[in-house]
Amino acid sequence: MIKHNSHIKELIDADFSLDILCKKAIDLDKDKIKSMIYSTQQNDNSVYVAYHNTFNSKSGLYSRLKSYKEFLKEDIDNYVDKFNEIENGARMYFHQEMTVGYFIDLYISFLHRKFENHQDKNSLVMINENGRKL
Prior knowledge:
The chain has 134 residues and is mostly helical. Helices cover 49% and strands 7% of the residues. It is built from six helices and three strands, in the order αααββαααβ. It has helices at 6-13, 18-22, 30-39, 68-81, 83-94, 100-116; strands at residues 48-51, 66-67, 124-127. It has a three-stranded antiparallel β-sheet with strand order 2-1-3. Helix 1 (6-13) packs across helix 6 and helix 3 runs antiparallel to helix 4. The longest helix is centred in the C-terminal third of the chain and has 17 residues, at 100-116. The model has no long low-confidence stretch (mean pLDDT 90).
């Protein structure tokens, strides 16, 4: 189980400069932001994802959906595609422009929720290539 606020450690471990994290996200190229988000996550070729509800109680295995790398790339693309919506929310709630650090940290938080809260529809689990939960 991932501990609460571990997303902050992931952001710190990425070792981005404070200057880049405090920069307005709107001023940074979207592909650069995608690569920064991707670099905060482990990229292990032996990790796959599965929907939590695909667990087979007889075999004790999950049905593999896709590799974690493939999932991350698609998920990050979808998240960055919602940039304007997220930026408008940040401006409305915080009354300031969204920073790169906030945008990346928010993604990491959303990612953790997908794997931590199995009451959510389409929640995910990490599995090995055979379907066993990691």
